[in-house]
Amino acid sequence: MNVLATAYGYAEGVKNGSITVNRYVKLAIERHFKDMEASQDLAYPFYFCEKTAQKALRFFDFLVLTKGVSKKNVPADHINPDGTVRFVLQPWQAFKIASIFGWKKKADGLRRFTEAYTEIPKKNAKTTTAAGIAGYMLIADGEAAPDVYFSAYTQDQANIGFKEIVAQIRASPALAKRVRILNNSITIPDKRAHLSAVSNDAKNTEGKNTHCGIVDEYHVHANDELKNSIQSGQANRSQPLLEVVTTAGFNRESVCYKHRELCIGMLEGKYALDNVFALIYGLDEGDDWKDPANWIKVNPSIGVTVQMDFLHREF
User: Fold this and answer.
1) 38-39-45-48 Cα dihedral, nearest 10 degrees
2) DSSP letters of 159-191?
3) pLDDT of residue 70
4) DSSP 3-state assignment of 212?
5) Partners of 186 in the beta sheet?
6) Residue 69 has what DSSP assignment?
7) What is the mean pLDDT of residues 137-161?
8) Is residue 234 a contact partner of residue 211, using CB atoms and an 8 Å limit?
């Protein structure tokens, strides 16, 4: 299956209205199409590279789902010969990964997006997808001696992401043979590659030379020390990635909310943040949250990782 076609299909579906999303996701899709059209101009600084987008998308073919999987609802072609369930990217996930890794700078061919922000509710495979991206950046991105860090405000939360990466790799024979899994890190000795979990409460982010940093559950961060520390450690990298993923919070004075407002301003055209990619799922102002027809705006993986009967029970 051509997963890039799935990414394109999602963008087209949002554009023509056949896929229901909120205003912020529509703006992200509009931005993509505007950039695709503008890239035909030789003077425009960015272009979309299908080859590198496909490479990142195909990495997920090596991954399997490690928890919460009921095979009775899984199509037969999603089940591997050994009985494991393949990590089949949902359309929104395919669009996100294709965008982050496909857009490049014409001047040097390096990645355009060095920062990504994804806001989405629980059970939409937020951390699982971020773990897959971390694994890709460690194993397949082609960076010399990549240092990858899965971070969260608490060490317990950071360890959740780290354990997910370990589980994904261990369940994939093709990937497991390429790495060495230790108690607190994953390494590729001959490539001097390293991945581990870091957190604000452990104070273990200083002195890093970060190629990829995942910041999980940003809405609970009391300050920006962790994010800033990881980001400052990327100064020597030619095409780093800082991936911020979070559920929505309640505190409008938080660093997460301020960052969210910046990303919204970028999507609205107020700020020219050409290196930032953002997907923000939620209801639009005035939407009736009690109407099940609106729930897909909040949960793009509804019916797959988020079951409708669960949402009805919670409602």
Assistant:
1) 130
2) HHHHHHHHHHHHT-HHHHTT-EE-SSEEEEGGG
3) 52
4) strand
5) 181, 195
6) -
7) 94
8) yes
